[in-house]
Amino acid sequence: MKTGIHPENYRLVAFRDMSNGDTFINRSTVHTRETEVIDGVEYPLVKLEITSSSHPFYTGKMKLVDTAGRVDKFMSRYQKHYDNKKK
Fold first, then answer.
1. For residue range 53-82, what is the model confidence (pLDDT) as tens digits?
2. Where are the domains of the chain?
């Protein structure tokens, strides 16, 4: 393995799933501005839209995860196409 190509600043980071509130800690080099205290230790915080704890493939629950209104935007854009296809 080549030396000097891997980052040196790996540290423990808290990742929070914003759809269900689960938080897990993992090592990462990601830069964050927010922090969170877990069990008396302060960690940098990364907010995620979806993780394995909320993804339908892993949970087996088919629920719609749409935090930014993307589905509504898509449906309004292509409603005319769907109406023509039904005729």
1. 776 666 666 655 555 666 677 777 777 777
2. 11-86
